[in-house]
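hi!! sorry for the late reply, been swamped w classes. u asked for the two structures so here they r. pasted raw, havent cleaned anything up. first the sequence of the first protein and right below it the tokens
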Amino acid sequence: MAARATASGTISFGLVSIPVKLYTATSSKDVHFNMLHQTDKGRLKQQYVCSVCGEKVERDDTVKGYEFARGQYVVISDEELGALERKSDRSIEIEEFVPIEQVDPVYFEKSNLLGPDKGGQKAYRLLNRAMLAAGKVAIGRFSTRGRQQLVLIRPVENGLMMHGLYYADEVRSFDDVEFGDAVELKQGELDLAGQLISQLSSPRFEPAKYEDDYRRELVAALERKSAGEAIAAPAPAEEREQIIDLVAALKRSLGERPERAPLKVVRERKPAKAKGKKEPGRPARSGSR
């Protein structure tokens, strides 16, 4: 089934405008649970309770507040927020082209697929081909939901992909990370680490060969439990031996790689019936078959 566009927009650079459609590029496969009432298994609803008076508050009686000091808030209305919002015409204004190698992956927030909208096929294909030939990606601003989001447009095969980016002041640095005392690495340790990296290296990243084992086992266990089976915890995995000697740890790593124990599901057994007693409503059997 063809993907459904979530929105439309326009890529602009210079005097060129390209109408495009936005499609969701990813979808989480995490298993989600609902909170239920333990007594009757009814689904629970979220409520707002005031931390001052303890009363239940309906959504219509809520306002937005910004905490400018501990326990002190300034209230702002929807009208005041609207006055501060930027245009939301879904335009994507390209500001510069840069090599993709110059963009640290830590800035990537989310991804969307861009497809050509009506009348924009030729300009869309032209931008894709020109960016591939130049080996560049585009940095721009996407005007949506009252704000301007920093984005990166990347050519991929015959299409364009848009990645939302964090602003510089939203990305943390290592300045606040404690590295401990300075250490000195020996050449032998570097050589062994290099051998381990070489042993585990692949020519390219192939995401299809990776699977979420936990999610697969969890879904299988839930399906079996819904059919009357019980989930049994697996035997605790053996703790990995703590090797203090770094060289010894590298040598062991080059020789063997531990595997994780899978989740086990066992069939729930019914308690055995007492001998000589018959079940209510059923006649007792006598004699041999």
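now the second protein. again sequence first, tokens right under
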Amino acid sequence: MFRGFYAGTSAMLVQEKMLDVAANNLANVDTAGFRGRIAVNKAFPELLMEKVDGQPGEVYPPKPERWKRRELIGDMAFANVLSETALDLRGGPLRHTGNSLDVAISGEGYFVVQDGAGNVFYTRSGHFLRDGEGRLVTHDGMAVQGQGGGVEFGDASRVSIDEGGQVLADGEVVDLLRVVQFASPTYLRQEGNSLLSETETSGAPEDLENLQLASEFLEMSNVNVVSEMVRMIEANRAYESAAKTVTIQDESAGKLIQTYGRG
């Protein structure tokens, strides 16, 4: 009977994560360069259910001498679990801004930016600005990286970025934007807004040559509002069904205890 509790709560946890993913995607629907995430579910193999009376931190399988501390209840299979969330690599729509420092990547690739502490991040957002020190920065103040490090153009009166990624200051090339690619970009970790960081699974960044950029354009979020709303509705309904299952199991357990738990 109590297997129903495990199956129901497992399903609730999966749908809760699905809701979190969809909500985060919707929250960034207007974030330039944002790429949504896709929740990936997978069937889960049978597990041994155990009542553990041993020390905290013990894991299965136990050593033979620890069997006395564990009571095997049986085995069961969960319907599915949330395996991972993967980056949606579909490109977002391009919007013309007329800003000479806005730029969008055609095809795959990521701009390289660095915060004040030296941490390196990657982004599809090419919404760049000029700070008070004559540096090229993101809208939140991170330094945009070129082939020579942070891009600087001093007190130049006219600055622009061409379709080959060259940064021009008063008509002179001062640097070339650094754009990188990854072997498995779906496994990049989101760090907030449109920022990404590499992981062991994504692989190390490799410089992308022969850049093809769209000057005075921004790549917008690739999130489809209608699709995400449908996912949220489906996840909500599935969560409610799983919660109802747990409630029914709880009521059945209560009746069983009332009937046979006397004496």
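hope this helps!! also noticed smth abt the second:
The longest strand covers residues 70-77.
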